[in-house]
Amino acid sequence: MIPVANPKAQNTAIREEISAALMQVMDSGQFILGPSVSALETEVPKVCDAGYGIAVNSGTDAIVVALAACGIGPGDEVITTPFTFVATTEAIVIVGAKPVYADIDPKTFNLDPAKVEEKITDKTKAILPVHLYGQCADVDEFAKIAEKHNLKLIYDGAQAIGSKHNGKGIGMYGEAATLSFYPTKNLGGCGDGGMVLVRDEELAARAKSIRFHGMDATYSYQYVGYCSRLDEIQAAILRVKVKYIEQWNAARAANAAYYIEALSGLPLQLPVPAPENYHIYHQFTIRFAKRDQLKAKLAERGVGSAVFYPSPLHLQKAYLNLGYKPGDFPESEQVARECLSLPVFPELTEEDRNTVTEAVKTSVAELT
Ligand SMILES: Cc1ncc(COP(=O)(O)O)c(C=O)c1O
Predict the structure, then answer these.
(1) Which of 85, 130, 133 to mutate to test the pocket of ligand 1 (most atoms within 8 A of CB)?
(2) Which segments in the chain show pLDDT lower than 50?
(3) Which DSSP category does 77 fall into?
C-alpha cells in the first residue's frame, strides 16, 4: 500500500546525519532551549522570510503563544475558519478568547475574506486564517481588512513552511505566523515541536517570555506564561532536516504537477493554486462527490488516502457551545463531505505516482 504520508522514508535517507546530531546532544548534557534551539531559531525564519523565530513544543502552542503575545485574551473575538485541524480553534479558547467562524472558499479551502468582514463586531480583535494544505490564504485581502478595522492578523502556517505569496514566505504576512513540526509535516521532527514567526522585535521578546513561564529574567515573571520549550533533541533533528526543506517542497510540487496533468479532465476538483502562490502541497486534496467510495476503491488498488477533515469544527461536540448549527457554513460542510488527500510526499517514486493516477482514473470511471 502506498501510504498517504511516510515520515520514516525521509528519516531513513538521512539516518547517519540524524544519528550524529543526536549523539552530539546526548554528549552536550544540555537538553532544553540550548544551542540547537537557538540555531534553529535563525535557520527556520530564513526559509519563511521572518525576522525572528520562537521555538515551542508544538504547533498548537505556537498559536497559543502567538495569540497571547499579541494580547488576545478573555472578552476578545477571533475570526477563523471552521475547516481546519482542531488546534486552530482550540488555541483561541485556551487564551480565553471566543472563536467566531466565517466560511471558506470551496476552491482553495482557505478562509474567504469576503465572508470575514460581515463577522466583525466591536469585540473582534484578530483574524486567524490558516494556510491550509500548504497554500497561502488570501494574504492581500486579509491585510486590507485588518488595517481597515485595526485588527491583529495571525496566520496558522502549521502546514505551510516554505509556502510563498508573490515570492515572499509566510513570515512576511500579518503580525505572526505559526509552524508545526509534527512528524508528518513538510518539516517534521521525531516528536512534537512548533515555532512562532514574527518580524517585530518587541513581539518576539514577548513571545519568547510567554513560552517560558512569562519569565523576563531569572525567576522574574512579567506575564502569566506557558511551559512550552522545545527540546534540543528535536531541534538537532530539525536542523538536519531544514537543509532539505526546499528540495522536499519542490519534490512535492513536482508530484502535484504530475497529478494535475494526469488527472485533468476527470469529473473531480483538483487543487487550484493561485498564480501568485507557491503551494508546497502539505496535502494534495481533491474533491469528489462519492468520496468514501473512491477512498475504498483506491485502498483496494493499493493507494492510501486520507480525509482532512471529515467534519467542520462548528459541528464538533466540544465547540457546540459556540452556538452554531448544521447549514451555518455550507461550503465547509460540503468540502468536509467531498475532500480526499492523495499521497504526495517527496519520496514517492515514478512508479508510485503512476499507480496513484491510474487508480484514481479507474476508480473515478467506475463511479461515474
Ligand atoms: C492547520 C494546523 N494547525 C495546527 C496544528 C497543530 O500542530 P501540532 O500538532 O504540532 O500541535 C496542525 C497540525 O497538526 C495543523 O495541521
Answers:
(1) 85
(2) none
(3) E
